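MOLECULE: protein
FOLLOWS: sequence and fold
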Amino acid sequence: MIRKPEMFKEAESGRFKNIFIQILLFFTVFMISSTIQSILPTIMMLFDMVVEFSKIGMEQIDNNDIEAVLNTVMAAQSTRPYLLVMLFVTIFGIIIPIIFCKFIEKRSLTSMGFKKKNAIRDYIIGLVIGFLMFSAVMLVNIITGAMKIDGINKNLSIISIIFIVMFFIGFVIQGASEEIMVRGYFMTSLGSKHNMILALMISSGMFGLLHLGNPGFTFLGFVNLILVGVFFGLYIICFDNIWGACALHSIWNFVQGNFYGVQVSGLTMSDSVLTASINEKMKLINGGSFGAEGGLATTIILCLSIGGLLIYMKATGKIVKENNC
């Protein structure tokens, strides 16, 4: 059994015990957060539509014009402004669950994993581990011929580097928002009142389901997202704070899109240090249009990482006999 860490014990002060109520509340908190996050991107999209329609003239619009405008607006969502806005608005995925835990559940911030001790050290370690893990995914792809690094991005410039830095800051926020929402809040709420493994599996499954709307979503991508959730969840449990998992999540996403130049869960990033190309005949390994997260190379590295973490947890007493939990 997994030994319950201190942050889970602190979360026992939470008001809600029934597992179905906890799941319902999670959906509620998530939907409130998502709705607020969608406001600015929606305003941007509507503004673009108005601009495009004004170019045509309302009296001349036909079905072909409407389709062309919609395609133009959809294409704009892959540009720098949209991508950066979509990353930065995820700050509400941090704010909303913190408000809920603090004022509704009556939980402390430390019960969500916000511990001061070794926070900077654990965050830096998480960045390093996350970089190495995704680099290992790329190595498997390269060795198998499923993907190749084309070299330094030919479009790399001072402006691109500035945007890459901005994307890194955006991913720091975005990665933290998902970890705080799904694991700092939801997993600890479940694990504080119920079986730890059950909490880990439910939160990991939910993490996979929350990405159903991503472009190019596949069943293997879904499996890999669950495995990612299991690894991040175990990492939080092992080190009894959320800092390392936030760093892992952020650098995992950033390195994919803005360093190696591959798609991030179906999304194409506009600026990257390197560029990579995939072998269309080996989509099972490289993930195809969903990106590396949808491929067997990621499955292999995640399984090895989970196995290694479990071995470490057993060696350090984090996994014990049931009567010692």
